[in-house]
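Please check this today:
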Amino acid sequence: MIRRPPRSTPLYSSAASDVYKRQPLTLLSSVLLPFIAALLCFGLNRIVATRLLAIVASIALALSAVLLLFVQPLPATLLDTLWLSQNSDPVHLLLQLDQASRLIGILIFGGGALALLMLAFAVPAELRRFGIIPSTLVFLILAVFLGMLNHAMLLQPLFWMSATLATAAALRVSGPDTATDAPLIALLSGGTAAVLLLGCELFLSFQPEPTAAVLVLGLLACIPTMGIPPLHAATHTNADAPSVVASTLTALGLPVLGGFFLLRLLSLELTPTWTIAISMIGMLGMTTCAAAAFGSQNAGKLLSWQHGAQQGMIMLIAAQGDLALRMIAPNLILVAALSTLAGGLALAAICLLYTSPSPRDGLLSRMPSSA
């Protein structure tokens, strides 16, 4: 008796192929969802209530954080394309998710979702024309996330500049005083840091060995971005914005990019002189911020000084190299982001419950200056 052969079943290789096909789609969705939400907040700014737009943006960020959990296997490539070619030396734009960047992505997407949810309840239910605030915050978070995915270091200044523009826009639209210099300070500081970063990367592309020029340019790009004294003005002016906005800018914005670039810079072989010098900068920054925090009478400024002290400690520990650089310092960056965001959101919640509205916020009648 001749038996009919059984129908073919999918082989393991085809199942694995399906996984690899779904991998870019899941990662792409985690980027497109917040991007579409930011565009909606911007486009429907005058039509839809700000509270509803902030809730939509919060849901989009929360979904992106969940989607990142299902991106398997790692590393997962979002984009790999030729950017430019000079002297037969191509520069590829490579956006790739690994285990470390996935953890950071979950942190900034999840933290951003909580911040936008708090923002939604900080404004009156029918208030309009302030949808640009959640839009700029989502664009900032996306710029930081894509900067963490980027492996083409010559293109990293583009992501720094994008985050700088989003930071300045958020300060401009949320600031209680339209005459404040905070957006201009953010633009000048972030733009200068991006240019210095480009110079550092150009030096490294021609000579991988750490020279004095590379270290000076890299440190001058990192210190103001991370908010370490004496170049802390830009990060410190974030405290002039409402606490929800200020904590998001400080905890989930440029300091994250600056901190991880610092770890990459210090992973180069440093001489003992440079190790001592960088340790001293971190120690002085940490003690200066701690001393300033004791004398601060503003809760928002206190959080800013606390964040600066943590960044100084990160620099001090990362300069020790080896295990401290690879294991302790990256975790401290995440701790600094979480503690600053938690402190800012707690301050906003307290102000919404117990503080009367402040005239500094104009139309944001239920959003006190510290909320």
In short: Confidence is low (pLDDT under 50) at residues 1-21, 356-370.
